[in-house]
UniProtKB/TrEMBL annotation:
Single GO MF annotation: ferric-chelate reductase activity
One GO CC term on file: plasma membrane
Keyword tags: Electron transport, Ion transport, Membrane, Oxidoreductase, Transmembrane, Transmembrane helix, Transport
PANTHER family in the cross-refs: FAD-BINDING 8 DOMAIN-CONTAINING PROTEIN-RELATED, FERRIC/CUPRIC REDUCTASE TRANSMEMBRANE COMPONENT
Topological type in the membrane: Multi-pass membrane protein
Name listed for the protein in its UniProt record: FAD-binding FR-type domain-containing protein
Annotated localization: Membrane
């Protein structure tokens, strides 16, 4: 090549690069516009609101479900719609879908493998479950209508057992079973699922090689994830080593243990046998064998409220006593009247996804009741990031809705610790607003503690007003005479259903103001506080 060719290539390259940079910057603007459009019309608004048995479903959820149904209906009908063919295909499709349901015994573990939240994975698991049941029903109707169906054939008997177990599984999907007795629901669900697989295996004809292959793939996947989970569990809890198991120290941290209306919070400190790195927003599943007579069969998820940039050797949990194992914990803690109790414990995890927060200028964390457990580690991380100058965040606002003041008193040491850490350059980024629905207050608004940075207000939090104030950015100090672009606002929620829906509507109206919302892994059943 001659020098002139090099010159032509270099000059052409520069021009093309400039055009590319221009196109890319245009595309990045377009991406933001598309993301706002998609959020406003698809992922934020509900098409089906919250009902007792169903919902809430956003437009996006409904679209995904429709696409999923359409794909299955297409496979069912293509290339012809003969009843016998469609019936056979429905059976095969049901089996293929079933593989997803047997991806693992512990939903949190599989959700982690897929990198999605537990809530999203549960939703998918439920949708696939309904699809399997629907397709199996089509298969059964087609088979019964065919002349060949007789009960003297053992394969048909197993078909009936399979369909019956699917029926039981569908019934168990109803929330009332889960809420009434979670452990019974879980074990019944697992037994019915195993029975269903066994029945399908016995139902399949010997020549159905591809169907048997699907069954083996499902079983193989299940065994693989189970083994991975068991090995992780053994390692995490040092089961066959001399290090000793983790131990859980249970302490009652409520104000007055005889107060019937109080929330009776418990703090659990889990001393680990191996240090563990836990990201904000992650949770562990805790198993405590000596708490009740069948507590060894149960494992319960709890958010890790402690946070450190490195590994932790003790994890802190903040627990609301309910009716089962958590009520037993409360009984033990009460029995000691102020004394902590220690139990052998096993953990799995940490599970769950963590939301990136460092790029937001303002982060508003909204919690109700025990939902504060999910936001405390984010507060710690944000303040650490500000002190270490490793994040862009310049304002953090905790908004906490409470029924009674006793929870605030229990959490006060944690909050004071946060306020103490937040003192870089004699400034501060953390503000705390606690909204109290009931309780004696001399004024509508008063300081909580000895400083102005935490206030306690009477009534319900005015969500639209709070979000608007943060968008205005009045609390962020800016250099005078310097035109500075306002940064993005992130609103994180661990709220009761009603407040969360209200927040979602508010954020949806402000998407163009660069406000985003993220729902954390734990959303408290606020009405049951
Ligand atoms: C990801 C996640 C994080 C959580 N973090 C916290 C936390 O930090 N602090 C806190 O107080 N609570 C938290 N919870 C809720 C907590 O797990 C339940 O309150 C606890 O398991 C109830 O135990 P119990 O035996 O006393 O329940 P029960 O009185 O038998 O049931 C009360 C309610 O808890 C549900 N529940 C029971 N067992 C389980 C289980 N193993 N898994 C899921 N739900 C169950 C039931 O469906 C029912 O609605 C979290 C839940 C999830 C899903």
């Amino acid at each position: 090549m001659e020098t002139t060719d090099f010159y032509a290539i270099a000059a052409g390259g520069i021009v093309v690069s400039l055009i590319l940079v221009r196109v890319l910057s245009y595309l990045s603007h377009l991406t933001t516009a598309v993301s706002v459009f998609v959020s406003k019309h698809l992922t934020y608004p509900y098409l089906i609101r919250r009902h007792r048995l169903l919902g809430p479903w956003t437009h996006f959820d409904v679209l995904c479900h429709l696409v999923y149904v359409a794909a299955n209906v297409f496979c069912l009908c293509y290339p012809n719609l003969l009843a016998s063919d469609a019936g056979r295909r429905a059976g095969v499709l049901s089996l293929v879908n079933m593989i997803f349901l047997f991806a693992g015994v512990h939903l949190s573990f599989v959700a982690d493998l897929l990198g999605i939240s537990l809530q999203r994975y549960r939703g998918s698991h439920r949708a696939v479950g309904w699809m399997v049941a629907g397709l199996a029903a089509v298969h059964a109707v087609a088979a019964v209508n065919s002349a060949a169906f007789t009960l003297s054939d053992s394969r048909n008997l197993f078909a009936i057992i399979g369909i019956a177990s699917l029926g039981v599984l569908s019934l168990l999907f109803l929330p009332c079973f889960r809420q009434f007795a979670y452990e019974i629901f879980l074990r019944a669900h697992q037994v019915a699922a195993c029975l269903c697989v066994y029945a399908v295996w016995r139902h399949l004809p010997l020549g159905a090689t591809s169907c048997r292959l699907y069954l083996y793939i499902g079983t193989g996947t299940f065994l693989l994830t189970c083994s991975m989970q068991v090995l992780t569990f053994i390692y995490r809890n040092s089961v066959f080593t001399r290090r000793g198991h983790p131990r859980a120290l249970v302490t009652y941290v409520g104000a007055d243990s005889n107060d019937k209306s109080g929330a009776k919070p418990i703090k659990v400190s889990v001393a680990l046998s191996r240090p563990l790195r836990v990201h904000p927003g992650q949770y562990i599943s805790l198993r405590m064998s000596a708490v009740g007579w069948w507590s060894w069969t149960q494992s319960h998820p709890f958010m890790v409220t402690s946070w450190s940039q490195g590994e932790q050797s003790t994890l802190e949990l903040f627990v609301q006593p309910r009716r089962g194992l958590t009520a037993d914990l409360l009984r033990h803690a009460h029995a000691g009247s102020g004394v902590s109790f220690s139990f052998p414990a096993f953990i799995s995890g940490p599970h769950g996804v963590t939301a990136p927060v460092a790029q937001y200028e303002t982060v508003v964390l909204m919690a109700s009741g025990f939902g504060v457990a999910a936001v405390i580690p984010y507060l710690k991380q944000l303040i650490h990031g500000y002190n270490a100058r490793s994040s862009r965040t310049r304002r953090v606002h905790l908004v906490w809705q409470l029924r009674t003041p006793d929870l605030a008193v229990a959490v006060q040491p944690w909050l004071n610790g946060l306020l103490k850490d937040d003192v870089l350059d004699n400034g501060y980024i953390l503000a705390i607003s606690i909204y109290l629905e009931s309780g004696d207050m001399p004024t509508d608004r008063m300081p909580f503690g000895k400083h102005e940075r935490a206030v306690i207000c009477r009534g319900l939090a005015d969500i639209p007003k709070i979000v608007q104030t943060e968008i205005d950015g009045g609390y962020i100090e800016r250099l005078p005479d310097v035109q500075e672009e306002r940064g993005e606002v992130l609103v994180m929620a661990s709220l009761s259903n009603e407040l969360r829906d209200r927040l979602r509507d508010t954020v949806r109206n402000h998407l163009r103001d660069r406000v985003r919302m993220t729902e954390l892994e734990f959303q408290p059943g606020y009405n049951e506080n």
